[in-house]
Design brief:
The complex is a heterodimer. Chain A is mainly alpha-helical. Chain A has 36 helices and nine strands. Chain A folds into five domains: 381 residues, Sodium/glucose cotransporter (Up-down Bundle); 116 residues, no CATH class; 85 residues, no CATH class; 110 residues, Helix Hairpins (Orthogonal Bundle), CATH 1.10.287; 149 residues, Histidine kinase-like ATPase, C-terminal domain (Heat Shock Protein 90). Helix content of chain A is 68%, strand content 5%. In chain A, strand 8 and strand 9 form a beta hairpin. Chain B is built from five helices and five strands; from the N terminus they run E-H-E-H-E-H-E-H-E-H. In chain B, helix 2 runs parallel beside helix 3. Chain B: This is Response regulator. Chain B: It comes from Flavobacterium sedimenticola. Chain B: Keywords: Phosphoprotein.
């Protein structure tokens, strides 16, 4: 294909990415840019051109050795739910903008440590970016069938690199605050992740099912090739150890690679997005690996005996069959993989270079004397130039150091260098004692061992000058042979370098940390990092600082970097958050930490600390003091928690008491009313008896008939008194539960007839017609005497309510599945609906009753209710269709004992 | 002949009072609740009323309030005769304007004495 055409295609493709990035940036916080899928896909920046092309090369030459790089992440990813969320939380709270910031903050805002981390990252990542450019350039030449030109300005790939550098520097530095989210870049990266996967699957399907007849066919043909068995044998224990170290290496890489830290931590919008990434990202890696093997061995079959670069099989195969469209697609996929990595890495690196190297070492002093707008412009420009020059530098590394090594091996070298951050990084998360000095020395020693065992031999291998260093060791000392250090000779160079460098790094980190205590600031941050959940909302509280500082001084510094408006807004937020008076003159520890955080995104943690420290007067605090304060604040938190719990309990108890009290008051009032009514009801017959007796006693002239009448009154009132006392005692027995109920099975209709029998005289007197209906065999368990009492009561009431002529009482018995229902209804005037419930109250007297004085005691229905409830039944009142009263009750057929 | 109105819902109590006051030469009217009493008072102007408190429909307190509102009945004496013997009830009864408050059970002689005293006999 003509290189101009391909360049135009590339330009269009880059244009599309520009557009996507631009669109995502402008549209802001909409569903499309802020969701867990975009987040998960952006993590796939892990799969670079190295994955895209390099895995195939490895699979073609040494079988399954490409797998550990994917196995490592897949194994460690479930732990993300805890570890990554913790990292995200710490970074969000402290406005961390890079991994260098993260590590240097934990070790007491250490400027030096931040710089060391940055340099280590530069050494690791620059060749890695070079590698991506190499892959773009080489594949470009394959697709266009051109040769790389030795004069760089004749080489079209130079211009591709240039365009990439411009794209990245424009879109990577939209904000001065480096901890801000870059939605545009992230969305573009996510899109590229989709594209590279789709294109890779396309070529995989093409090779497997179009070129060959499926997996079996490839296997059958490949197994006939020379070296098939040898290449696909896993080997013994040394090989297993190699695998083990490669897995460990890639586990670290997924946390520590600056681009991974950038997308997984800095660009994370919500912690919960991690939950989706935990399954989606491994799935992505799995899909990416399905066709690696078929393509690799398909290529081995097709190009058997030819001198071709197996890394580029995925391009060579479609080209071999003249499928130009597919070739270009595959190329675009690889291009996507490469530029995602280049863009994200260069953004991360340039933030680190500006915030951890350039600004704290030199530029800060000069920045302070500038105006806010100038400062911001300068910072952004540093980053822009940083991104641009990093990419250009990487391009030169590629051009001049040629990079003869395969994609895979250079990638691993980068991994080993970055893995040096592991002890101080994970120590920051889990170990309180880890100190700055330990971190610095561990890192430096580990890095030097990397240089000695990996970078130097590789560099010598490239220039192939004097190899006696490799074969005979430094100064000819056998034990110092860089690839078999201290006689360790069965590991491949990469695991070998990883083993020694990390071993020394880790031992020194631990040993130094244990031997020399860190300063109070390190200890303070250790506490904040480890217990981030405790400090998440009011984390400024956890910062310990002693000294004098004036708010106006601090505000002046903030205004310099943030501008008047933002400073004011931030101060307002601070005042509200901590309930601080706005006229307060002195700044406290919280404000110091708050201000450092505000500046951190712009200039990095170390510079932020230096800046703030320059306008305040800090007093030294001893380590024991810090520990004491931390201990106290911890205790306070616990005590506070306990107090809150106790006070909640007390509130609950007091609410319950109030409730109980209210119900007691109601009961007390009910009791008073009951006593009132009882005394009244008892006094009434006594009054009548007394009055009659008095007359009989005093008056001798009383006519015989009247005398008898008065005596009759005395008798009936005495009976009434007696009945009343009986009923009160009855009711009291039921209410206190002392009334025994003797259950036995009876026929309800019979019981009703027994109850009506004694009332017959009364019924006849009033000429009332009583009608009993229902199945005569319907049985239930009940105390017959008690139910007779209920029926008697209800029928007596009905008799009272019946009109003087044509009175009609209907007693109906129904079978309602589990219960027997009895209804007693009359054709009187009915009950006012208001009274349906109250008529069962003690001494109820209807406001609506139309007869003069109830013959009963006012306790009848109350007792009925008690009896029915003791049978676990219900009793209620309604009016029937003719308007008469209808009282019903139910009784369960079977009583549960 | 003095007129007396007895308001009570207990027929046996009413019977004793009725007998006694008739014997003492009163013209006796009987009502079995407050409403009936107010009906009677529309046509009759008794000299004294004996009023129970706990009665259906219109109770004694309410009845007294109506009586006090009626100008024609201003001269009419009222005695509460009730089983409610709490001090608060007695105070309430007297505050409403009753001339006396007797509690049940009562001595008939005392009731007669009280009536005579109020009527200045």
């Amino acid at each position: 294909m003509n290189s101009i055409v391909l360049l135009i295609i590339l330009a269009l493709y880059l244009g599309l990415l520009f557009f996507i990035a631009h669109w995502a940036e402008k549209k802001g916080n909409i569903r499309w840019t802020n969701n867990p899928y975009i987040y998960s896909l952006s993590l796939a920046v892990y799969c670079t051109a190295w994955t895209y092309y390099g895995s195939i090369g490895v699979a073609a030459n040494s079988g399954l050795n490409y797998l550990p790089v994917y196995l490592g992440p897949v194994i460690i990813i479930p732990a993300w739910i805890i570890i990554l969320k913790k990292i995200i939380r710490i970074s969000r709270v402290n406005k961390v903008s890079s991994i260098a910031d993260f590590i240097s903050l934990r070790y007491g805002n250490s400027r030096f440590l931040g710089a060391v981390v940055t340099i280590v990252c530069l050494f690791g990542i620059l060749p890695y970016i070079a590698l991506q450019l190499k892959s773009i350039a080489e594949t470009f030449h394959i697709v266009t069938n051109t040769q790389s030109s030795s004069y760089i300005f004749d080489d079209s790939t130079t211009y591709v690199a240039f365009a990439l550098a411009i794209f990245s520097s424009i879109y990577g530095t939209r904000y001065v605050d480096a901890s801000e989210k870059r939605k545009g870049i992230v969305t573009a990266v996510a899109l590229e992740s989709v594209l590279k996967l789709v294109f890779f699957l396309t070529i995989g399907l093409y090779v497997t099912f179009y070129v060959f007849d499926g997996f079996d066919d490839i296997y059958a043909k490949a197994s006939k090739l020379e070296l098939f068995r040898q290449k696909n044998t896993l080997g013994g224990l040394p090989q297993a150890i190699n695998w083990f170290f490669l897995c460990i290496l890639s586990m670290f890489a997924i946390f520590l690679l600056p681009r991974q830290f950038q997308v997984s931590v800095i660009e994370n919008n919500r912690e919960n997005h991690v939950n989706t990434a935990v399954w989606l990202f491994p799935l992505y890696l799995l899909l990416f690996n399905i066709f690696v093997y078929p393509i690799a061995w398909g290529g081995n079959i097709l190009f058997d005996g030819q001198a071709v670069n197996s890394d580029t099989y995925s391009l060579l195969i479609p080209q071999h069959f003249g499928n130009e469209a597919l070739t270009v697609l595959v190329f675009l996929g690889g291009f996507s993989a490469a530029i995602s990595m280049i863009v994200v890495s260069s953004i991360g690196l340039s933030t680190m270079v500006s915030n951890n190297l350039i600004i704290p070492y030199g530029l800060l002093g000069r920045l302070k004397n500038n105006e806010q707008s100038t400062i911001n412009k300068k910072i952004v420009n540093i980053r822009k130039i940083g991104i641009f020059s990093l990419i250009i530098m990487a391009y030169f590394i590629y051009r001049f150091f040629a990079l003869d090594y395969s994609l895979f091996s250079i990638g691993l070298v980068a991994f080993v260098i970055i893995a040096q951050l592991a002890p101080s990084f994970f120590g920051a998360l889990f170990w309180r004692r880890g100190s700055r000095t330990g971190a610095v020395w561990g890192l430096i020693v580990g890095f030097v061992i990397c240089l000695y065992t990996l970078l130097v031999p590789y560099a010598l291998g490239i220039t192939s000058s004097d190899t006696s260093f490799i074969t005979q060791g430094l100064f000819g000392v056998e034990l110092l042979k860089p690839l078999q250090l201290f006689g360790l000779d069965y590991l491949q160079p990469v695991p070998h370098a990883l083993f020694w460098s990390l071993l020394f790094n880790f031992l020194i980190y631990v040993a130094v940390s244990v031997s020399f205590k860190g300063n109070y600031r390190e200890r303070n941050y250790a506490e904040m990092f480890l217990d981030i959940n405790k400090y998440i909302t009011m984390h400024e509280n956890a910062f310990i600082w002693k000294g004098t500082a004036y708010r106006t001084d601090i505000e002046k510094v903030l205004i310099k970097f943030l501008g008047e408006e933002r400073t004011k807004r931030a101060m307002n937020i601070f005042n509200v958050k901590y309930n601080v008076d706005k006229d307060e003159k002195l700044a406290d520890a919280r404000l110091i930490k708050f201000s450092e955080n505000l500046l951190t995104g712009h200039i990095g943690t170390a510079s932020a600390k230096i800046l703030i420290a320059s306008v305040v007067k800090e007093e030294k605090i001893t380590l024991p003091e810090v520990l004491k304060i931390l201990e106290e604040s911890k205790e306070n938190i616990i005590i506070n928690k306990k107090l809150t719990e106790t006070s909640n309990e007390l509130k609950e108890i007091s609410a319950k008491l109030q409730e109980a009290n209210a119900s007691l008051m109601i009961k007390d009032k009910q009791k008073d009313e009951f006593l009132d009514t009882v005394t009244h009801e008892l006094r009434t017959p006594i009054t009548a008896i007394r009055a009659s007796s008095e007359i009989l006693y005093d008056d001798d002239e009383i006519p015989e008939e009247l005398r008898k009448q008065f005596l009759q009154n005395i008798i009936s009132e005495s009976d009434r008194l007696n009945r009343l006392i009986d009923k009160i005692l009855d009711l009291e027995k039921f209410e206190t539960g002392r009334q025994k109920v003797n259950f036995a099975t009876h026929k309800m209709v019979e019981t009703i007839e027994n109850a009506i029998e004694p009332l017959q005289q009364l019924i006849n007197n009033k000429h009332i017609h009583v009608h009993v209906e229902g199945n005569g065999n319907l049985k239930a368990d009940y105390d017959e005497d008690r139910i007779v009492q209920v029926v008697t009561n209800l029928v007596s009431n009905a008799i009272k309510f019946c009109p003087d002529t044509n009175g009609l009482i209907t007693i109906a018995v129904y079978d309602k599945h589990e219960v027997v229902q009895v209804e007693v209804s009359d054709n009187g005037k009915g009950i006012a609906p208001n009274d349906f419930e109250t008529i069962f109250d003690k001494f109820y007297q209807s406001t609506n009753q139309n007869f003069k004085k109830p013959i009963g005691s006012g306790l009848g229905l109350a007792i009925c209710k008690q009896i029915i409830e003791h049978h676990k039944g219900k009793i209620w009142a309604t009016n029937n269709a003719t308007g008469g009263a209808c009282l019903s009750f139910t009784i369960p057929k079977k009583q549960q004992s | 002949m003095k007129k007396i109105l007895i308001v009570d819902d207990e027929p046996n109590i009413v019977m004793s009072l009725e007998y006694t006051f008739k014997k003492n030469s009163f013209e006796v009217y009987i009502a079995r609740d407050g409403q009936e009493a107010l009906d009677i008072l529309k046509t009759q102007l008794p000299d004294i009323i004996i009023l129970d408190i706990m009665m259906p429909l219109v109770d004694g307190f309410e009845t007294l309030e109506h009586i006090k509102k009626n100008e024609k009945l201003q001269h009419c004496k009222v005695i509460f005769l009730s089983a409610k013997n709490k001090e608060s009830d007695i105070e309430k009864g007297l505050a409403l304007g009753a001339d006396a408050y007797l509690t049940k059970p009562f001595s008939i002689k005392k009731v007669v004495e009280q009536v005579n005293e109020l009527l200045g006999n």
